[in-house]
Amino acid sequence: MPEIDPTDHEIAELGPKVKDIDDADELREMLELEEEGEDRPPVKTLVESRIEKLEEDEEEIDPESVDLSDLTVADIANLVRDVDDVAVLEDMLEREEDGQDRKTAKGQIEDRIESIEGSDDEEGEELEYVPPEEKHPDLDHPTADKQWVERLEDAEYRDMWVYCETQHGELIDVSTEMLGKARQLMDDYNDQYGGDEDGEPEDVVAVLIGDEVTDLTEQVIEFGADRVVSLEDDRLERFRHEPYTEIFCSMARAGGQVADEGHEDVDWKEYDEPRYTVFPATNNGRDLSALVQGELDSGLASDCSGLYIEEAMISNPAKTGKPGDSKEFERILHMKRPDFSGFEYSTILCIDKPFRDFHPQGASVIPGSFEIPEADPEREGEVVEYEMDLDDDWFGVEVTEFDTLDSGIDLTGHDVVVAMGRGIGDSPTEGIELGLDLVDAFDDAAFGLSRGVITSSYNFEGHVESYIGEDRQIGESGQVVEPDVYVAAGISGAIQHKVGMDESDTIVAINTDPDADIRGFSDYYIEGDLFEVLPRLTEAVEAGELATAVAEASDD
Fold first, then answer.
1. Angle, alpha carbons 165-502-518 (nearest 5°)
2. Of 88, 114, 432, 468, which residue is 20 to 30 A from 128 by alpha carbon distance?
3. Residue whose C-alpha is closest to residue 302's, from 290, 292, 294, 291
4. Cβ(535)–Cβ(434) under 8 Å?
């Protein structure tokens, strides 16, 4: 008997439960119960789809016997990534040449062979170090010192630093999300690498800057920090670019070769700079991350939604130091972010090269990308109250008057999110009202918008106008939500929006375009006018028949 009897649940409740089941036999038992009970087609389809997905994952492709003509170039790229036998790869290359003879497919196989055994090209020469002042004697503009930066001598890097942003004296959610992810990453890191080069475990370091932030030190430790470095000053009540950047960089360099005056020796840090830095991709976090990484002479992967640490095989001579050579780099933070077009992700790497270090490896994280961890009141950590003189020139602008919003709009944590897109264009005020009606019909729902609505020139009337603002935007530059049910009305499904909602358990899309991109990642696609469909869904919710109404409409 399976743990879940599908006949006891509505389809909207079953969606997230079924996705968490990894036993195909248990799913088949559920299917039998449904067929003997209510025998609902949408439920059977849901269970059957999960079974098919598990069976596909179980089927392993044998690189020695697979028919390469049945695979796409992307399939081949994924397949060869796990092949370490050069003989097998050479056989695959020969079969591809005898078959479709695709240049890009052969390139993937050849790249993997080169990654394993290196190149036979003996013509490449080791790069020769030339000091910047000799290589570029005429370079005298103000950024000369940043244009060609030399590596630190025998530099040491450690730990993952997390900038914990606060508002009104409290940690914002993305700060706790990043701490939880950093804790998981560094636990895995220490297991995989045995800690640093000397075998000492590396830590999660939380950074708190602001007014009355020391009150939060215990909280960040409970969420995963091993050490908290904080600086408190009433002039830092609101985010300021220069002082926040100067403070963070002073902390990061303390105890190292390039520490500023007065911080050459500290008892809590003996390395040059952090190995990794993580910031929130909020308005202030985006600014600070770019300024800090620039000041620390490194790079930044912005607006990331995924992070992991592993090796990277690189053949670029700018990184290896010798044309035709391949080199495996360890302890590399892989930073996944959505591309600007298409439904693809890029993985950004920040890798050292000869005579030049790129540390810290830095990323900013889209809010909502990771789960908020459970606080552990038993955790213990080190607290460092950082001291430094703050230059009055850093506070050259005086704020004489300001307004404080009572609260922002948090779309996360709700059972349902209803989001409206440019499909409201025929009658924008009415369209928003219909979306709000659907939100009101649920017990726990929130109202969101695509960027297209916020940046449009629609004229909204009455109370509707108060619902149009950037704080309701869902997507790459807005909030990331993962509700049980996500209703996308009149949204085409651009990658920037997809990033903000594609982890929802059940996605219901409404669009007049049969070929809209959002169709490809929706669980239910209703081809129709939102002005006609939304009232029907609202009635169905009020009658407790949403699952049936959605299934029937999408079948049509």
1. 135
2. 114
3. 290
4. yes
pTM of the model: 0.65
Considering the four listed CATH numbers 3.40.50.620, 3.40.50.1820, 3.20.20.70, 3.20.20.105, the one that applies to the domain covering 158-395 is 3.40.50.620
Q: pLDDT digit string (tens) for 523-545? A: 999 999 999 999 999 999 999 88
CA distances from 81 to 47, 53, 190, 461 (A): 32, 22, 24, 56
Distance (Å, whole) CA 462 – CA 455: 19
Task: Measure the CA–CA gap between 90 and 288, rounded to whole angstroms.
Answer: 48
pLDDT at 127 over 70: no
CA distance 507 to 21: 19
Contacts of range 93-96, beta carbons closer than 8 Å, 24 or more positions apart: 95/68, 96/68
Quickly list H helices, 20-172: 24-36, 41-58, 73-80, 86-98, 103-117, 132-135, 144-147
Indicate the residue type of 532: E
Q: Is the pLDDT of residue 319 over 90?
A: no
Residues 6+ apart with CB under 8 A from 78: none
Cα separations in angstroms, 35 against 30, 322, 523: 9, 64, 21
Residue indicated by tokens 């109404």? 549
Which residues are paired to 327 by β-bridges?
314
Structural tokens at position 252: 């990061």
Mean pLDDT over 182-199 rounds to 90
> What is the spatial order of strands in the sheet that 345-348 belongs to?
306-314, 327-338, 345-348
pLDDT of residue 404: 62
Match domain 416-554 to its CATH number in 3.40.1280.10, 3.30.1330.10, 3.60.10.10, 3.40.50.1220: 3.40.50.1220
* Beta-carbon contacts of residue 545 (< 8 Å; ≥ 6 apart): none
| Least confident stretch, 120-129, 288-297, 354-363, 497-506 | 120-129
- Rounded average pLDDT over 308-330: 81
pLDDT band at 361 (very low <50, low <70, confident <90, very high): very high
Angle CA 470–444–550, to nearest 5 = 95
Same fold, 158-395 and 416-554: yes
